[in-house]
Amino acid sequence: MRYFKTKKEKKDYFRELLYQVEEGKPLKGDEDEELRDLFTYADKSQEIDRNSIDFFFVRTHSAKGWKPTKCFYFKLHTGEEDHFSFIKAIDGPSIMSYLVKAGRYLVTDQTLTFKQSKFNGYEVFIENPDTPREKVFIWDKSHVDHKHPNTFSKLINGWMAWRGLEPGDIKLVDVKDSLHTTFEDSWLAEDWSKFHKKNAQLRLLSAKDNMRLGKRAEKKETP
Question: Are 216 and 107 members of one domain?
Answer without folding.
Answer: yes
